[in-house]
Specification:
Blueprint (H helix, E strand, L loop, with lengths): L12 H11 L3 E2 L11 H12 L12 H15 L9 E4 L1 H13 L5 E6 L5 H7 L3 E6 L9 H7 L4 E7 L11 H14 L2 E5 L19 H4 L2 E6 H4 L8 E4 L2 H14 L5 H10 L4 H4 L1 H15 L6 E3 L6 E5 L8 H10 L3 E2 L1 E2 L12 E5 L4 H16 L2
Parallel strand pairs: 1-11, 3-4, 3-5, 5-6, 6-7
Antiparallel strand pairs: 2-8, 7-8, 9-10, 10-13, 12-13
Bound molecules: pyridoxal-5'-phosphate.
Pyridoxal-5'-phosphate binds next to helix 4.
């Protein structure tokens, strides 16, 4: 009856591995969500706003106080001021923000450059809007961004480039040198830049997040996207935002109003209050760095070789010293026989990937990480 718009799409690897994890009673270090509770203060705020009657449609652009708080936060952290009235819009998480941006920007036949491995929503969202994804591998040994290769792949059809820093799944971050390269290329070829910064508050080893709006030239041609789900351990609330210059935001809003229109009202009021204390998001770097280090130390004698994450709550490990089997099989074995669910890297690539790398999520309680580490050690001893 209908012709599939995404005929190649399979169930997401996250759902597949989580289901396998449940079936085998494994410790689930696969899917990227925190297993700890939200701050009680945030829950109290939500309850307060429910009772205060903030339960009907929010404005299409988002609750004004929340947009103002976001504008303040961006200005304080990155030095660029977005007009909260005209240049910031609240979205139902970053996934919707990304989808609506692609929907706004892409016309059939437009090419969109992105780095691989890539977060799984980008390519389908580009394709469903008639765009052509052009992929560039992140450069080993540290999965860094290769802008020389970007320039080689640019054609007269290139419309936009997607940047994700801190990067899921690799944990790499954009450097200030990268920012300069991107600025030069985007200007030279007149590109729109779509910047997924959902892990902006999870950066390690005294590095600082480089937001695209730190470059005035890039800010003028970019959609900057973030999400409170990652920052406040509330992935289920699905609230995020887009910041973009007025001429881009006007077009974004035309699409947004007919797809989502408004986003969860009490959650927006709660975040608007909660954001007034920067400590709530500035403390996250240390919190997650401790977890990353705990994981790295715990797996240091297993033969797994880490690509040390500079940000996010994911850590990649190469297992080629341990086994020759492909990454899906290795992850399944780890789940079924080892009792720990992890994610293979291949689903983050469109095709032709045969590396031996897995991703572990460390946004978990310490006791869960400890149990996972102990099981992985035992499993790999006997491999
Ligand atoms: C890189 C990246 N972008 C976007 C998202 C989606 O964020 P949200 O849950 O706010 O839709 C995720 C979630 O895992 C992510 O890792």
């Amino acid at each position: 009856m209908i012709k599939s718009k995404l005929p190649g799409t399979k169930p997401s690897i996250f759902a597949v591995m989580s289901a396998l994890s449940n079936k085998h009673n494994a410790v689930n270090l696969s899917q990227g969500f925190p297993d700890f509770d939200l701050d009680k203060e945030l829950i109290d705020l939500f309850n307060f706003h429910l009772s205060a009657g903030h339960n009907q449609y929010a404005p299409m652009t988002g609750v004004p106080k929340l947009r103002q708080e976001i504008s303040k936060k961006i200005k304080n952290l990155y030095g660029f001021w977005y007009d909260p009235e005209l240049e910031i819009n609240i979205t139902a998480g970053a996934t919707q923000a990304l989808y609506t941006v692609f929907n706004t920007v892409i016309n059939p036949g437009d090419e969109v450059i992105l780095f691989e491995p890539a977060y799984d929503s980008y390519i389908p969202a580009i394709q469903i809007n008639g765009g052509i994804p052009v992929t560039i591998p992140l450069k080993l040994p540290d999965y860094s961004f290769d802008f020389d290769e970007v320039e080689r792949k640019i054609s007269d059809k290139t419309k936009a480039i997607v940047i994700n820093s801190p990067h899921n799944p690799c944990g790499s971050v954009l450097s200030s040198e990268n920012l300069k390269d991107l600025e030069r290329i985007a200007e030279k070829y007149n590109l729109i830049v779509i910047s997924d910064e959902v892990y902006e508050h999870i950066v390690f080893d005294n590095l600082h997040h480089i937001s695209l709006c730190m470059s005035e030239l890039l800010a003028k041609r970019s959609f900057v996207i973030s999400s409170f789900g990652k920052t406040f351990h509330a992935t289920g609330w699905k609230v995020g935002y887009v910041a973009a210059p007025k001429y881009l935001m006007e077009e974004f809003r035309k699409v947004h109003q007919f797809t989502v229109f408004a986003v969860n009202t009490p959650a927006q009021f709660s975040y608007a209050d909660y954001l007034s204390n920067p400590e709530k998001y500035l403390s996250l770097n240390e919190f997650y760095q401790n977890k990353r280090d705990f994981l790295l130390k715990g797996l240091s004698n297993t033969g797994l070789i880490p690509y040390k994450a500079q940000g996010t709550y994911f850590q990649l490990f190469d297992y080629s010293n341990i086994s020759d089997i492909n990454d899906s099989e290795f992850s399944e074995k780890m789940t079924i026989k080892g009792g720990v669910a992890v994610i293979p890297l291949s689903p983050f690539y469109g095709q032709n990937y045969n590396g031996k790398v897995i991703r572990i999520c460390f946004a978990k309680k310490n006791e869960v990480l400890e149990e996972g580490i102990s099981r992985i050690n035992k499993f790999l001893e006997s491999f």
